[in-house]
Structure prediction request, 473 residues.
Amino acid sequence: MSVQEYLDKHMLSRKLEDAVNAAVRAKTPDPVLFISNHMKKSVQSVITKVKARQILDSRGIPTVEVDLHTNKGVFRASVPSGDSSGMYEAVELRDGDKGVYLGNGVAKAVKNINDKISEALVGMDPTLQSQIDQAMIDLDKTEKKGELGANAILAVSIAACKAGAAEKEVPLYRHIADLYGKVSPMLPVPAFTVISGGKHAGNNLAIQEIMILPTGANRFVEALQMGTETYHHLKAVITEKYGTHDCNVGESGGFAPNVSSFREALDLVKEAIRRAGYTDKIQIALDVAATNFCIGTRYDLDFKSPQKSGQNFLSAEDMVELYRELCNDFPIVSIEDPFDKEDWEHIKRFSSTGICQVVGDDLLMSNAKRIDRAILEYACNALLLKINQVGTVTEVIEVVKQAKEAHWGVVTSHRCGETIDSFIADLSVGLSVGQIKAGAPCRGERLEKYIQLLRIEEELGDQAVYCGVDWKQ
Ligand code: PGA
Ligand code: ZN
Prediction:
C-alpha cells in the first residue's frame, strides 16, 4: 500500500487535525508529544514482526528470547526451563547436536519463530490472546507442541500478552485479569527457597527445597523484608554450625548445607525464623520432589550420599509417618510432591489426612488431564503451575480456572533455569493465585519476579491486597 493510500484508508489527515485541536484544548506544555501520542492511539495496533534469538538461562543453558514488534513498540519475552520433565508436559524443542552447547541449543525453535510463527501472526491484533495462541497451536498440529516447540510458542505467547497490555494501555497484570475474566488482582504470598537439596544442590539432602512463607505480613513489601531477613539469619545459623563453606547456594539460591536429615535442615530454618523474630508469622513449605529418590516402592533418603549404607530406605507408609511428625514439630503448611509421581495411592492417602496443603508438581506436570484425574481422585489440593509445561497464556489461564473451580490452591512457579523475564509475577497478580514460588530472595533472575511484585504493589497503592493468611485462596 502506498503512503497516500494508507493515509486515506485510516483518514489520517482528519485525525491529525483532531489531534492538533485536542492539544490546543488541553493547553499541553508539550504539543509534539501530545499529538504523537494522540495519533498513536488513533491507529489500531497489529503485529508487524516476530524475531527470536537464542540466549542463555541462569544455568548457562540455551533458551529462547523473542521480540514481538507491533506498530507501537517492541515487546520482549523469554522462557525458563527446569530439571524435571515428564511425558505429559509440553515439549521443549532442543537441537540435539552434541557438538553445540552439548545438544541443548534451541536454534530450531528460534527458526520456527522467525519463519513460520512470524508469518502466521503478522497482521494480528495483539489484544486477541486466544486467537494468537490458537493460531500457533493450529500451526504446530501436535498434542504436545513438539513440532514448533513449546519453548518457541510460549515465548511468543508471553510477548503477545505484553503487547496486548500495551495496546490497551493497562498494566500487564490487569490485561491478564481481563483475559481470565472478573478477577480482582491480589498479591501472592511468596514461598522463598532458603534451603536447597535434591537435584538442585550438591549436598546430601534428599529433599529438593525448604521454603518460607511470610503469611503473617500485611503487605508484599513486608513479606519480602521478612523473608530476606530470615534468609540472612539462616546464613549466620549455618555458618556457626558448619562453617562458611556450607553457605554455598543451590540453583534457586537456597543454602546447601551438608545436613544429614530433613529434621536437621528444618531445625536450622526454625532457628533462623526465631532469631529474625517471625515465629508465628512465617510458615514453612517443602518441595520433596520424591520422584527423584523413589526406588521401586521405597524412598532412598541417602540417594546422594557417597557412602550409601542402604540403611536409610523408607516405605511410603514410613514417609506418611515422617511427614506427620515433621508437620507436628515444625510450622509446615504445605508439602509438594511427597511421593513418586505415579504413587497415586499414597499421595491420596496423605492428602486425606488433611495435615497440610498437598501440592502436585511432578504428579500433575501442569497437564489438564492429570489435573482432572487428581481432582476426581482427591489426590492433592494444590497445583504447582509451571507455565512452560503448558505452552500458551490462554491454556495457562484454563488450567488455573480448572484448579480454582476445584477449590485448590495455586502456586505459580519459576523453573531452576530462569531468565530475567518477570511475567509470572504479573500472572500471579492477574489471576489472583495465592502463592508464588520464585526461589531465594537473592540472585537477579529470582529477584526480578519479587521486585516486579513490589512495583505492582506500589502501583496499586490503596487498592493493593496481599493474600497473607488467605494464601490458599
Ligand atoms: P525444576 O524444579 O524447575 O528443576 O523442575 C522446580 C520444582 O520442582 O518445583
Ligand atoms: Zn517441585
User: Anything to note?
Assistant: The first helix runs from residue 3 to 9. The chain has a mean pLDDT of 95.
